[in-house]
Amino acid sequence: MGRRDLLTAASIVLAAPTIIRPVQAHPGLKKARVGFIEPGTQEANGSFLAAFRAGLAAHGWIEGQNVTILDRWVENRPERVPEIVAGLLADRVDVLVTAGALVTKGTISAAPGVPIVIVGVGDPVAFGFAQSLARPGGNVTGVASSAGDVLSKRLQLLLEMSPTAKRIAVLTDSNDPAREAQWLQPRDDALKLGLTPVQVPVATTEDIEREIPGLAGRADALFIAFNALMVANRTKIATLALANQLPTSCPIRNFVVAGGLQSYGFSLPNEFRRAAPFVDKILRGAKPSDLPIEQPTVFELIINLTTAKALGLSLPAALLARADELIE
Fold first, then answer.
1. Looking at the domain 149-265+300-327, which fold is it?
2. Burial status of residue 167 (CB atoms within 10 A of its CB: 0-12, 13-18, 19 or more)
3. Quick one: DSSP state of residue 298?
4. Which end of the chain is more exposed for a tag (fewer CB within 10 A), N or C?
5. Contact yes or no for 213/186 (Cβ under 8 A)
6. Per residue in 277-313, pLDDT tens?
7. Running DSSP on this structure, what letter comes out for residue 22?
8. Percentages helix, strand, coil for the chain, rounded to the nearest 5?
């Protein structure tokens, strides 16, 4: 457990009331239907749905009482999105929740005018999903995922942990609308630091299985883009990288739990919880066009000590002290 977790737990204990009452559904709320479209599989990403469901319950939307969540899993096959959306529209959903730029893009095309709440989309304005973060102007709102400074910080942390690395492989999804940003930002940051960036575009799980072992002799470390394909294959990526002695810079904690070396980024389950207030407001009559798109506000550094040991890395004490969580 990290230092921040201990402080949070202590504050919860001190502030806890004597009687804890369960959340009750608000009797005045209409019965609603929410479509939930996740890019991966339920087996790998079921915790994201659980986080979203908990967020809705905190706002009085209790499944089985006043809301039905129709969860659909793309299973890393984005070509299925139009069919999935058509089925949800036939089920008369009131709002759709989508994750990732690729699934969101397909959903917008298949459901014009239907309220959409996004999670984990890097730059919804650049992708044409919204006119601005402050005033989206269309049918899309929700929680974006920032890049820029976070990507630069991730590369710096990777070098602190693996100071001898000179060649940095950047794993990107060639199908993602954000593919250029996924490559250009870390490429430019690496060049500024005198490193050699190597782009590794993939589009399928099979590509990942082939490309990572092929990095032997070409790269000293692996920088992983934040993308639905990567999240769905986080265990495979972490396992292959370790087998090929590649320290990994991961976008979120889930990768490090799966065996990646370190991550610096937001909590994806928390971002799904943050999507719930948007759904709540829309179900109460708000328009997506009037709901500002939010960005992550809390970032966490997670380090896997077991992986570091397996890679033969000696981590600076100052870096360990800055970590929010150390996994052993």
1. Rossmann fold (3.40.50)
2. middle
3. -
4. C
5. no
6. 999 999 999 999 999 999 998 899 999 999 999 999 9
7. P
8. 45, 20, 35
Is residue 96 a contact partner of residue 115, using CB atoms and an 8 Å limit? yes
Q: Are 237 and 215 in contact (CB under 8 A)?
A: no
The position carrying tokens 């590369």 is: 155
CA distance 164 to 73: 41
pTM of the model: 0.86
Q: What is the C-alpha separation between 165 and 32, in angstroms, rounded?
A: 52
Q: What is the CA radius of gyration of the chain?
A: 20
- Residue 203 CA, chain-centre distance (Å), reads 18
Which residue is associated with the tokens 């070509």? 79
> Torsion-angle region of residue 136: left (phi > 0), alpha (psi -120 to 50) or beta?
alpha
- Model confidence at 96, pLDDT cuts 50, 70, 90, reads very high
| Cβ atoms of residues 277 and 288 within 8 Å | no
Chain mean position to CA 51: 13
Return the SS3 of 2. coil
**CA pair distance 83, 41, nearest whole angstrom:** 16
Gap between the Cα atoms of 49 and 226, Å rounded: 19
Phi and psi angles of residue 262, each rounded to the nearest 5 degrees, phi first: -155, 155
Is residue 103 within 8 Å of residue 231, measured between CB atoms?
A: no
Could you tell me which CATH number the domain at 17-145+267-290 has? Answer: 3.40.50.2300
